[in-house]
Each structure stands twice: as structure tokens, then as C-alpha cells.
Specification:
The structure is a single chain. By secondary structure, the chain is mainly β. About 10% of the residues lie in helices and about 30% in strands. It is built from five helices and 19 strands. Strands 1, 2, 4, 9, 13, 14, 16 and 17 form an eight-stranded antiparallel sheet that branches. A hairpin with a 2-residue loop joins strand 13 and strand 14. It is globular and about 55 Å long.
Length: about 350
């Protein structure tokens, strides 16, 4: 009998100032190696000229039925949401939006099953190993199973039916079909809730050799570049909203989609899931995206110019004085808590 008990989620991490810059700007994001020789993520001339992250997904020309069962998922090296810094209850901003997209150039060969799913994953603890099984598939289920990631709970758009899958469950009434030539995007907005007490924070110094204002969010009284950070034990859930874009047109999704695991208390990573041969396209993050709304191109350009504190955020009146229900306040975002980083 299969154990249905959920695995514990990976602990949110802390990141260096240059890593936080790459995360906020969407530059130099890479993915795990694809565990099958029939696919590769490659840089092209277009990729090299792109200011954000652009990877070309290239399949082999083979449509041999013996490899149609090969299905893989790969996760990015850095998250796009880092809970200890980006939670609106840490930053005091009204919201934080993360977003990336995929331009479809191929969806398999005629008569050969293939599909694409992509979106976000929250990693299980110890999920770095890629699973395989004895029948040669890179995943522990057959071709008819719902899309999911081996790395942990996932929020995915699926090419077969255009559906949105919230941790393996299709969201009822939602379908956004797409075909070759279309660009699909998935985004999540983490929202500030003034009814929830602010999370205690402390400031950590950034690399003193980094360019002023580029990697940091504030200055301390001595002029050192600092970043506000929360302790893992203090993180609490915030409201979230999910949206999909089809060729730049935003499609909001109502309800509690992904609230159970994408809630602001975990780091959230892009994940790409491919089943069968012949799927191709372009992975776009940061300034490589075409969508101009929240979390899209405009925010990526802000971050690339050094405004990483506000990229992806809507500014809040709570960013200066953090109100605490029942009286009192945290000033400047520095809370009452302390601890190691």
C-alpha cells in the first residue's frame, strides 16, 4: 500500500546578496541537468543576447516508441520566492509577485504521446535526487497520470488539456488551451494582510564590495548595506493569488488555489515537467519574459537596474511602521526577534 503521508517540506534558506539579485532580476537562473539524453536545455545566440534567463528546450529527432515513456521534471537552481526575505510580512510591501513563462515550439510527434507541464514547486526535504524505476521511465507513474513534480507539491499548467493542477488535482472549471507558437505564463502573488502581526526581523549586512543599492534593501545607521531577514520559526502563511497568462493576456484564478503549500512560508522554485519525445520551447525568466504585468517584464527591468528591493512588489504603507494588533509597532521593519542567519 502506498504511503499517503505528505513528506516534510524543505526548510527555507538564506541567500547571499548576489544570489538575491539574480533571484529578483531573473538573471542567470539555471536548471538541474535533464536526466535523459533525448532532451537538453541549451543556450543559443538569442539566449546569449537576452538580459534575463532564456533556455532553449531541444528534443532529439527520435520518435521511437521505446522512449515515449520517458518523463522528467527539473527544478531551477534558485527560487523565485525566498520566504525569509520576500514574505510581505517581512518586507512590509503590499505584495510580492513571481512569474515565468514558456514559449511552445513543439508538442511532440504525430501519433506519439507527449506533453508539457510547468509552473512552481515547493521542495520536499531531501528531494534533490532524481527518481527512476525499473521500467525505464524517469517517473514512478504511467503516461495517464496527472502532472506532478517528484520534488514536492506543485502548481502546474498542463498542455494536454490546458488545465491548472494544484498538487496533482485539476482545478475545476479552469482550462487555458495553448498550441505551438503560444506563450504561456504562470504567476503567484503573495499578499500583505494587515490583520496578521508582522514577522520579527533583523538586518544582515550585504557584501560591502557590491555596488551601492544593487543587492540591498536598506542602509543601517552606519551606512552599511543591509537586508531584512526573518527566522524560519517565525514565518506564517499569507494570502495568495494565482494567475496564468496566454500570449500576454492575464487570466486570474479565483479561490484557494495552491494556498495549502504556496503560502509564503517556503521557498518556491520554477519546475519544468516533460512527458514523451518531441516537446520543445523556450524557458523565459526575468527580462526574457514578454508579459508586462506584475512579476513580469517591468518588475524584472526594475530589478536589473538595481531596484531589487521593490521589483515584484507593490509598496505598502506598512513598510515604514509595522502595526501590531493590540498596540505597539515595529519601526523600520526591525522586529523583536533575533537568531542566527
Amino acid at each position: 500500500m502506498t504511503d499517503s503521508t505528505p513528506n516534510p517540506l524543505a526548510t527555507p534558506s538564506s541567500y547571499s546578496d548576489h544570489e538575491r539579485y539574480f533571484i529578483s532580476s531573473g538573471k542567470q537562473i539555471s536548471f538541474q541537468p535533464i536526466p535523459t539524453s533525448i532532451y537538453r536545455l541549451a543556450q543559443t545566440t538569442e539566449s546569449i543576447k537576452t538580459k534575463g534567463t532564456l533556455w532553449q528546450l531541444n528534443p532529439s529527432a527520435s520518435d521511437d516508441p521505446s522512449i515515449t515513456g520517458n518523463t522528467f521534471d527539473v527544478v531551477s537552481n534558485l527560487p523565485l520566492f525566498i520566504a525569509r526575505y520576500d514574505s510581505p510580512l517581512v518586507s512590509g510591501n503590499d505584495s510580492k509577485t513571481i512569474y515565468w513563462e514558456f514559449e511552445i515550439t513543439s508538442l511532440g510527434y504525430s501519433g506519439t504521446p507527449a506533453s508539457l507541464a510547468f509552473g512552481f514547486v515547493v521542495k520536499d526535504a531531501g528531494s534533490e535526487a532524481v527518481a527512476t524505476n525499473s521500467n525505464g521511465s524517469l517517473r514512478p507513474y504511467d503516461q495517464t497520470a496527472l502532472p506532478k513534480s517528484l520534488s514536492g507539491p506543485s502548481l502546474l499548467w498542463h498542455s494536454t488539456d490546458g488545465g491548472v493542477y494544484d498538487n496533482e488535482t485539476k482545478v475545476p472549471g479552469l482550462e487555458f488551451p495553448a498550441q505551438v507558437g503560444d506563450t504561456i505564463g504562470v504567476g503567484i502573488t503573495f499578499q500583505f494582510d494587515p490583520s496578521i502581526p508582522m514577522i520579527p526581523t533583523r538586518d544582515v549586512n550585504d557584501n560591502p564590495n557590491s555596488k551601492a543599492g544593487k543587492f540591498s534593501k536598506s542602509l543601517d545607521s552606519k551606512g552599511n548595506k543591509t537586508t531584512r531577514i526573518a527566522e524560519v520559526k517565525d514565518l506564517v502563511a499569507v494570502p495568495t493569488k494565482v494567475f496564468v497568462t496566454v500570449n500576454g493576456e492575464e487570466k486570474p484564478i479565483e479561490g484557494e488555489v495552491a494556498r495549502a503549500f504556496v503560502s509564503g512560508v517556503t521557498d518556491v522554485f520554477p519546475v519544468l515537467v516533460v512527458s514523451g519525445p518531441g516537446v520543445g520551447g523556450k524557458v523565459k525568466i526575468g527580462e526574457a519574459v514578454s508579459f508586462g504585468g506584475e512579476g513580469g517584464l517591468a518588475d524584472a527591468q526594475l530589478a536589473a537596474k538595481g531596484n531589487s528591493a521593490n521589483a515584484g512588489h507593490k509598496k505598502s504603507r506598512f513598510s515604514k511602521v509595522f502595526k501590531i494588533p493590540g498596540g505597539g509597532a515595529w519601526f523600520g521593519g526591525v522586529g523583536m526577534g533575533s537568531g542566527g542567519g
